[in-house]
């Protein structure tokens, strides 16, 4: 009897799959390059390799969105309800989405039925700094590829969820993990690593997407050797940034951080992978005089060789954990009839930067938050003009040598903007930046590197700046630096933005709402409460002539863990774990 019911379940599943037209995902490089304009699928993180998070779909628009309603919701189940920061992918009627604790689900886009689930078997000793989150998969050929909390890349059969290949990217016992969605560039899967709070050495690595064979490795701390694999042989590929110790004292470059924890974007025009790097380790900046390259920077990397083409450092000699990982989004604009090949990024440090994406030259920069205390501004090259009084003091200068002077710095280390990706609308020419207004008391303490242990040398308490809001969704003009409109939210914003040709901008809130705004005015046009806080990134696609919007719901991430007084203020928010999918009623 048991055997019979088992085989019945399998054949029923096969029948269900063929009935709903579910077929094997066969994603090509062309599919990924064209992702933004092909509205029937979402096959890249960022709705296109440039990460603009803009869709040309307009059936759901400022006039019709009021009628939008959920058509299905799917629960991730289990007890593993922590932060859900994933961006779903959609291909041929199947949604591929990750969940907390390195889980992957394939779901029928029409019904919300589960097709398969994969649970990574994680060791006890994983060391994620900032919740057990995951930000999504990459799709290539018939594979679903994602990174795990124990720093592995896993490729699953898109049809069955069975493991096709698995690679260890780094040793989790040293503090490495992977939470970002990998990216696919010309048949290569490119990933970064997390672990900047444990004194790891950041790196970007490329693997053959079909086989998992390593192709190149590029460390992101000055002085470390890069490698390229030719015919299976490991060959030295140049020291990152020249010889060790130029911008680091002593041996500190050996545990220098600069984690590439948010992955990157790809610009086909310049054939560049743009990947950001986190804080230099440890946080206590008095231990490491110098610029500490390539920490808190944006890097342009050649996807074919792993060479660093240029770098732009947003916070040299960072002393506030202003990780420079935020997405660098390519866009073109006209200046006096000339097309400028630009890219923009909004940094944890509170400044937004517009760069020339062909060479990394600084074009302009401006604050995108109301208050910045650690710097007085940016110089003509985009380098911060420090307010030295706002650098937390040297513990060696204190009486007992145990605690340096504390400062109240703004923004807090969780940033004017954290991981949550902004969107760029090709219609309005504006960036929609999810930001937060908060400050912190921060001080330095002595510390020493120990493999696999926290390596901060700092203490801190995050504090709100106002009673009525922390989160601010801002429409920013990259040509003028002006804020065009804003929406203020009580809780910190922690989810990604979606812009559409329907003149709409969507974002989720920790209070649970998926909200839609008029892209030109900021007027709230839609809201629906998903039952738990949203810290994921919404997507949109078209199926059988109808436009769909999906977003993952499930409160968590870094804020409840690290948010100090802010975390106390929002401790009533409930956890969850589900996908919600919306559309307009037929006719
Ligand atoms: Ca597409
Ligand atoms: Ca950090």
Automatic annotation (TrEMBL):
Active site per the UniProt annotation: 321
Tell me the leader sequence span: 1-25
- Region (Disordered) location: 385-404
Which CDD domains does the UniProt record give? Answer: PQQ_ADH_I
According to the lineage, what is the superkingdom? Bacteria
**Family annotation (SMART domains):** PQQ
* Entry similarity comment: Belongs to the bacterial PQQ dehydrogenase family.
Q: What is this protein called?
A: Alcohol dehydrogenase (Cytochrome c)
- Organism phylogeny: Bacteria, Pseudomonadati, Pseudomonadota, Gammaproteobacteria, Oceanospirillales
């Amino acid at each position: 009897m048991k055997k019979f019911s088992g085989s019945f379940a399998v054949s029923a599943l096969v029948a269900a799959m063929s009935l709903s037209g579910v077929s094997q995902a066969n994603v090509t490089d062309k599919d990924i390059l064209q992702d933004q304009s092909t509205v029937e699928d979402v096959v890249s993180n960022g709705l296109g390799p440039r990460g603009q998070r803009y869709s040309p779909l307009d059936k759901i628009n400022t006039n019709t969105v009021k009628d939008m309603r959920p058509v299905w919701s799917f629960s991730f189940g289990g007890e593993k309800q922590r932060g859900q920061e994933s961006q779903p992918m959609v291909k041929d009627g199947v949604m591929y989405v990750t969940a907390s604790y390195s889980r992957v689900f394939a779901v029928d886009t029409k019904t919300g039925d589960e097709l398969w689930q994969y649970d990574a078997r994680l060791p006890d000793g994983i060391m994620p700094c900032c919740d057990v989150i995951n930000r999504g998969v990459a799709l290539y050929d018939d594979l679903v590829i994602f990174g795990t909390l124990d720093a592995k890349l896993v490729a699953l059969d898109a049809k069955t969820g069975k493991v096709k290949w698995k690679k260890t990217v780094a040793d989790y016992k040293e503090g490495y993990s992977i939470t970002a969605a990998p990216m696919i560039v010309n048949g290569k899967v490119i990933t970064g690593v997390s672990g900047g709070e444990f004194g790891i050495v950041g790196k970007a690595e490329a693997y053959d997407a079909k086989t998992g064979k390593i192709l190149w490795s590029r460390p992101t701390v000055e002085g470390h050797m890069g490698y390229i694999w030719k015919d299976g042989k490991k060959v030295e590929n140049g020291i990152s940034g020249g010889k060790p110790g130029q911008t680091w004292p002593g041996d500190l470059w050996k545990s220098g951080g600069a984690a590439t924890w948010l992955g990157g974007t790809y610009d086909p025009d310049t054939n560049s992978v743009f990947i950001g790097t986190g804080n230099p380790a440890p946080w206590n900046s008095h231990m490491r005089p110098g610029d500490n390259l390539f920490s808190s920077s944006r890097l342009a990397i050649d996807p074919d060789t792993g060479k660093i083409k240029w770098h732009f450092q947003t916070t040299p000699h960072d002393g506030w954990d202003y990780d420079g990982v935020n997405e660098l989004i390519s866009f073109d604009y006209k200046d006096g009839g000339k097309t400028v090949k630009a890219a923009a990024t909004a940094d944890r440090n509170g400044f937004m930067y517009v760069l020339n994406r062909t060479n990394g030259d600084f074009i302009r920069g401006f604050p995108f938050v109301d208050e910045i205390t650690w710097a007085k501004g940016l110089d003509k090259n985009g380098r911060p003009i420090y307010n030295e009084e706002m650098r937390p003091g040297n513990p060696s200068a204190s009486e007992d040598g145990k605690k340096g002077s504390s400062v109240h710095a703004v923004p807090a280390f969780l940033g004017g903007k954290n991981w949550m990706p902004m969107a760029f609308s090709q219609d309005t020419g504006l960036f929609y930046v999810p930001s937060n207004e908060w400050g912190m008391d921060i001080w330095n303490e002595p510390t020493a590197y120990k493999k696999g242990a926290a390596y901060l040398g700092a203490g801190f308490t995050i504090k709100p700046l106002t009673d009525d809001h922390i989160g601010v969704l801002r429409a920013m003009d990259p040509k003028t630096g002006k804020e065009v409109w804003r929406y203020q939210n009580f809780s910190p914003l922690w989810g990604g933005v979606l812009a559409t040709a329907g003149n709409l901008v969507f974002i989720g809130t920790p209070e649970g709402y998926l909200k839609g705004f008029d892209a030109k005015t900021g007027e709230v046009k839609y809201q629906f409460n998903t039952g738990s806080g949203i810290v994921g990134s919404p997507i949109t696609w078209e199926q059988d002539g109808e436009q769909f919007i999906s977003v993952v719901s499930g409160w968590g991430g870094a804020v409840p863990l690290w948010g100090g007084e802010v975390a106390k203020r929002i401790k009533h928010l409930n956890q969850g774990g589900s996908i919600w999918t919306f559309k307009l009623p037929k006719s």
